[in-house]
Amino acid sequence: MSDERSGSLYDAIGGIEALRRLSNTFYEGVLADPVLAPVFANFTTTHIEHVAVWLGEIFGGPARFTDELGGHQSLLRSHLGLAITEEQRGRWMELMGEAVRKELPDDELLRRRVLEYFDWGTKIAKDVSAAPAGADLGDPGPTPRWGWEGLK
Ligand code: HEM
């Protein structure tokens, strides 16, 4: 690729503070949305921070989700039993697209890479959500990392 960019997406996004704003704006939309609000019936405000910390690690920042919040296995387990539909996944992507446009730097490649991660990640969340709560997922491996070229 000729349009090479150096550094992490995390730094280009603006670090954990920008990810907190993204997560906050996104969940404001989710909780007001008739398609998604029922899925998040057990929502608590810690969710906003946990998602920001997860995204920080994914986009090349500190590995805090792995070190402090149970890592990849725990993230996947959070989605077991939710039975996410394609309509719900689509709405999730629309609201995240709006939050990205509102909160992330006006950088087309950066926004595209971030939304590509969300498209990839929501498909995994949907797949995992078809298994019942408590299902054994085996070892999913380390938390993925996403950079200027996509999945590392
Ligand atoms: C890239 C996509 C996604 C990411 C990064 C993500 C991230 C997370 C994280 C970090 C948690 C744990 C929060 C905590 O510990 O408080 C979580 C839980 C949850 N996620 Fe996702 N998620 C994604 C996709 C989805 C989708 C598509 C849905 C549904 C449409 C969904 C629904 C939920 C729900 C309902 C919970 C809370 C489960 C509970 O009440 O314990 N997620 N997600």
UniProtKB/TrEMBL annotation:
Keywords: Heme, Iron, Metal-binding, Transport. Transmembrane segments: none annotated. Residues 131-140 have a biased composition (Low complexity). Residues 131-152 are annotated as: Disordered. The keyword Metal-binding applies. CDD domains: TrHb2_O-like. The keyword Disulfide bond does not apply. Pfam families: Bac_globin. This is Group II truncated hemoglobin. It comes from Kitasatospora aburaviensis.
